[in-house]
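PT: before anyone asks, these are the final sequences, not the draft ones from last week. 584 residues across everything. Please model them as a single complex and drop the result in this thread when it's through.
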Amino acid sequence: MSMATITMTRRTSDAVNTADVRRARRKQNLTGWLFISPIVVGVVAFQFFPILVSIAASLTDWNGISAPKFVGLKNFSEMFTDDPLFLQTFKNTVYFTLASIPLTIGIGLVLALLCARPIRGVAFFRTAYFAPYVTNVVAIGFVWFWFFQPDNGVINGLLSQLGINGPQWLSSSSWAMPAVIMVSVWQGIGYPMIILLAGLQGLPNEFYESAKIDGAAAWQRLRFITLPLLTPHFLFLLITQFISSFQVFGLIYVMTKGGPGHATSVYIYNIYQNAFSYGKVGYASAMAWILFVVIAAVTFLQWKLQKRWVFYT
Amino acid sequence: MRIVGKTSQYVVMTLFAVAFLAPLVWMISASLRPEAKVLSSPPKFLPTDTQWSNYGEVFDLIPVFLWNSVKLAGLNVIGILIVASMAGYAFARLRFAGRDIAFMVLLATSIIPGIAYLIPQYIVFQHIGWVDTQYPLWVPKVLTPVFATFLMRQSFLTIPNELEDAGKIDGASTFGIYWRIMLPQTKPALAAIGVFTFLESWNDLFGPLIYITSENLQTLPVALAQFQGEYFTKISLLMAGATISVVPVIAVFLFAQRYFIQGITMTGMKG
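LR: through. Structure below.
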């Protein structure tokens, strides 16, 4: 065979190959996109599109029914200069968040440490601590609503056994928020407990052995080995707990409806009322975007600040 | 860690267990009391004067709510498992143009707080006549399972190539490989997602609250909140209803606790 024919045949087979490859690749692309088409359609239709509407709506005066009226940034300026309720619900939300995060993570840590030790019956205790987390807020809200009744409720009943005259709880503007926080902590502790328990069970043993040889006391091991090794878990919990606490809604809706007055009205509850009770869709959308900015900024800050305290082995 | 002795550890753990379970125990015992004895001084936690007829009365009211809750949970679980496992499989095991960008974009949507798109979603559903139907409580959820897709992708990534190759040699179609060979390998992830989805659907408050106004379409937990003045006028009946709304969840949780905890820790710290 001469050189010329060899090159010829190679060329034709190359041509066939590229056509085949192209056809196969097209088929691969089609198959891939068919597999993800339900979620792609869903996210475009139920998230992207509404998000665009929401951005546009935040610049309008709109009740959701009649034609929206463009008002520029007025919604945003109104929030900060002309809406005392916005500022109050923002403060209430910060109060709720700052109180509930350390309590859930702190008590969650104690429970995780207790459950990490392999003792008989530990599965029962773990399940008991976790049960409120899977229970719906309506049932929980109702139970605690009756617990907090000032005159014949369970909490003040128990307090009076100890000779203490309990406060008015949910009908007192200063005690309603602590009461709601207590319930939220009680319900929410299961999550940090499980995360920290998984963290504890994954800790390397070497550190503890050498610490024992060095004669470190148990609390020293906790303070200088366990806690530093768990810092990545604490960071994760701080971020996720901030995001969820800042958007608390269910317990507030069931237990207080934001009252008494607006003492327990939180950010999402305020958005909910504006959008669905007062029909202020434009204004509520603007509030939703401020919420996004706050959450994104705090999350970013926590991520940046981790260098200062999170310890990676 | 031996910070305290075993006995004191049991004492502390038991005290905590009482604190966590007492409200739930009170709920059950209140549901069994005559109305006049629900709130007693000093408070009682264990049932007294047990009155089972409360449940009889509640069962006259709630079958339709209970059915709605079951139906929606079923639709959400089945729908999300199918959509998320298909997408997760494609993102983990198939090669196609735009795959990685599409995946990143999907994940990015999860940083936007739900409330930002829930408001316009409501307006859109109002326009297409979906308000006061059950569609908004499952269609948008089934078609946007970003978190479940992420979990499924992780799970498909861990399956060895040999299985898939064997299927290819046998001439199975891509869908056949996904459905018959790969999907059965991801049972733990499917179970975790199933439990999460069930709980989320069952316990959802916001969706049923804003969308459902017709009584016969409402879910059980939200019906308790919405119709307490109308039907559940007695505390004992309200607590019986609350107990019934909690039992299926606790049952599912007890059966599938392992998968549930796996799911939490998987998404929590290994991402």
